[in-house]
């Protein structure tokens, strides 16, 4: 039976999937883009529709449609499978052993809970006041449906019993954050009771947690707080989730702007009124991870926070990261200090104007800081510098930084040099901080950027040599007859070449056994790949497959417009250089051995070495220049 992963691969085009994340430009038979996994100025990220693979020649990341989604979304293979299956119209069976991972069990617990709560909200008698409350807040029925808003009855165990009937155990229910352990016992009870339930989804639309608002009739007596959220769980890391991003990501991309609000109601109302590029940080400070997540979709963020909080915002890690990552951060001043929810409901034009007039974050922060200070006094100046300089120091864009230093200098009537000096003292630390925190975090979306490994000329030529064979299969025979594996430079190249030879010899064997009536078989990328997947090659199979992809794409890239004659001349030229290099190397080694043998006075050995030396010299002469 076909594996679901193969079925998905056969039904989806990697080009379409990659395009959902980054723009692709045609380049020969392939597509090209700025690599989403490392920072670069010219595109070295290549996607091949024919081979259904991608490879970055800058950071060496590569693979198929699954590796791409895993890397982009920082998720496991199983999650990538889950995300791509619906796009491919493939139904995954629940019993699929690969899918019964713990993580997926927990997601299932939360999903069952979500459906249950939603049903109760729509129909339950006890949810009447919740329904009224939501209607009063202006939520349409379709909105409640779309956001799957629910209601948790005031019961200690209804949800737990339902989940157990569906085959989940106490441990799983607890680990998914849906129950609370009764202290000192092995008993559990429902975590959420008598609350309006807002599902919190991850970027792919899987419900990972809930934010639960107290039922309106109980608001007065509530001691737990108006809102309680699911705890941190294996499936819910609140620093990595933005409320509404699963529904907003497309529009964030289309508008090239992500608006970040504070509350879920702001997001839901905004979406209902057609402003779909808005998400919420759910009460927590904006985190680095959230900023990185947003950067996938746009470089522009606008904060529609409570204005009193702007001061705190500047101190937030997320904002600093956004600015040092050269994102444009703006602040939306919601009229009359209202929150976006109210503003959008009361006056859409006002909201649109506020969005349009969003101030650059730095300008906003300057104004805010200056407003409370007397800049004619030394104290005021000192205070302003103390607040603003650390933020200025972290600006990734140097032109912008320069601009604001000048502004600050004018405002304080202080020489720019003094300010710059202070910034310089701050800068290296800020840079280090960013370098240490963002790019090395494997899940952050900034995949680790390896400095390009310095390759020798021979290694580069060896790559081209194999790339030519892959691009022009008819050259394989010549290559294999003229170059031995150990004449290829670089161990990974050597192993790949050795495997290609084994594969080729297999093909020829089978062909002759069948009588050799048909056209002789040829090395092909697809054939090789299949052979790799089913063969006994075990040594660094993954590494070999990535290298194979890389070299196949290198062939597409470098020999895109080559005619076969040209390609043949090229491979001959490279073969000569590789061979000569190998022979010269070997002769050097023999020379050393001769010197050693002479010291030991081993006549026999000297004689045989001399013979080899002469033979090598002849061969080198034959190879020519
Ligand atoms: Zn890259």
Write up this protein.
The chain has 625 residues and is α+β, with helices and mostly antiparallel strands. The protein is 54% helix and 10% strand. It has 27 helices and 16 strands. The chain has a five-stranded antiparallel beta sheet, with helices on both faces. Strand 1 (25-27) and strand 2 form a beta hairpin. The longest helix is centred in the last third of the chain and has 37 residues, at 564-600. It starts with a helix and ends with a helix.
Per the principal axes of the C-alpha atoms, what is the gross shape? Answer: globular
List the bound ligands. Answer: zinc ion
How would a textbook summarize the main sheet?
Answer: 5 strands, antiparallel
- The proportion of strand residues reads 5-15%
Low-pLDDT runs of 5+ residues are: 429-452
- Strands ordered across the widest β-sheet: 1-2-3-4-5
Radius of gyration of CA atoms, rounded to a whole number? 32 Å
The portion of residues assigned to helices is 40-55%
Strand-pairing-aware structural class: alpha+beta
Count of DSSP H/I helices = 27
The total count of strands amounts to 16
What's the overall average pLDDT, rounded?
A: 84
Could you tell me how far the N terminus lies from the C terminus, measured between alpha carbons in angstroms?
Answer: 55 Å
Give a brief outline of the structure:
With 625 residues, this protein is of the alpha+beta class. The chain is built from 27 helices and 16 strands. A hairpin with a 6-residue loop joins β7 and β8 (188-190).
């Amino acid at each position: 039976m076909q594996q679901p992963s193969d079925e998905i691969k056969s039904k989806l085009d990697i080009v379409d999937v990659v395009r959902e994340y980054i723009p692709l430009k045609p380049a020969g038979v392939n597509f090209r883009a700025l690599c989403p996994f490392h920072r670069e100025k010219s595109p070295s990220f290549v996607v091949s529709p024919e081979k259904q693979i991608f490879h970055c020649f800058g950071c060496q990341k590569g693979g198929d449609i699954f590796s791409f989604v895993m890397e982009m979304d920082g998720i496991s293979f199983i999650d990538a499978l889950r995300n791509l299956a619906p796009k491919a119209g493939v139904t995954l069976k629940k019993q699929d052993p690969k899918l019964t991972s713990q993580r997926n069990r927990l997601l299932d617990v939360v999903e069952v809970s979500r459906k249950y709560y939603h049903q109760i909200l729509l129909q339950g008698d006890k949810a009447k006041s919740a329904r009224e409350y939501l209607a009063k807040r202006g939520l349409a029925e379709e909105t409640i449906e779309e956001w799957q808003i629910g209601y948790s009855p005031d019961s200690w165990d209804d949800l737990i019993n339902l989940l157990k009937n569906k085959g989940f155990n106490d441990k799983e229910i607890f680990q998914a954050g849906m129950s609370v352990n009764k202290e000192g016992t092995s008993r559990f009870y429902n975590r959420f009771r008598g609350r309006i339930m807002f599902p919190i989804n991850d970027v792919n639309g899987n419900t990972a947690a809930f934010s639960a608002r107290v039922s309106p009739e109980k608001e007065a007596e509530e001691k737990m707080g108006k809102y309680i959220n699911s705890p941190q769980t294996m499936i819910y890391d609140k620093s990595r989730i933005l409320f509404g991003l699963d529904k907003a990501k497309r529009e964030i991309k289309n508008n090239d702007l992500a608006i970040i609000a504070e509350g879920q109601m702001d997001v839901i109302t905004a979406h209902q009124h057609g402003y779909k590029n808005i998400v919420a940080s759910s009460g927590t400070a904006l985190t680095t991870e959230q900023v990185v997540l947003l950067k996938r979709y746009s470089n522009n963020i606008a904060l529609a926070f409570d204005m009193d909080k702007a001061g705190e915002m500047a101190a937030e890690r997320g904002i600093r990261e956004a600015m040092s990552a050269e994102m444009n951060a703006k602040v939306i001043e919601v009229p009359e200090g209202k929150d976006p929810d109210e503003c959008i409901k009361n006056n859409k034009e006002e909201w649109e104007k506020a969005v349009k007039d969003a101030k650059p974050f730095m300008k906003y922060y300057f104004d805010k800081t200056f407003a409370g200070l007397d800049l004619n006094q030394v104290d005021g100046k000192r205070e302003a510098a103390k607040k603003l300089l650390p933020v200025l120091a972290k600006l990734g864009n140097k032109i912008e930084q320069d601009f604001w230093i000048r502004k600050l200098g004018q405002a304080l009537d202080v020489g720019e040099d003094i300010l710059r000096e202070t910034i310089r003292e701050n800068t290296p630390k800020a840079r280090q901080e960013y370098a240490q925190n963002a790019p090395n975090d494997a899940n952050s979306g900034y995949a680790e950027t390896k400095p390009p490994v310095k390759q020798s000329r021979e290694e580069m030529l060896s790559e081209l040599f194999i790339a030519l064979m892959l691009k022009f299969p008819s050259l394989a025979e010549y290559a294999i007859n003229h170059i031995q594996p150990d004449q290829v430079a670089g161990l990974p190249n050597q192993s790949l070449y050795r495997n290609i030879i084994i594969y080729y010899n297999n093909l020829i064997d089978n062909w002759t056994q069948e009588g050799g009536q048909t056209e002789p078989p040829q090395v092909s990328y697809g054939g090789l790949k299949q052979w790799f997947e089913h063969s006994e090659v075990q040594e660094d199979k993954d590494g070999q497959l990535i290298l194979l992809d890389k070299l196949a794409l290198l062939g597409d890239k470098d020999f895109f417009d080559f005619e076969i004659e040209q390609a043949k001349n090229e491979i001959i030229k490279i073969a000569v250089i590789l061979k000569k290099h190998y022979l010269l190397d070997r002769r050097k080694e023999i020379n050393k051995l001769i010197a050693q043998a002479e010291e030991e006075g081993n006549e026999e050995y000297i004689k045989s070495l001399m013979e080899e030396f002469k033979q090598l010299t002849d061969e080198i002469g034959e190879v020519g220049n």
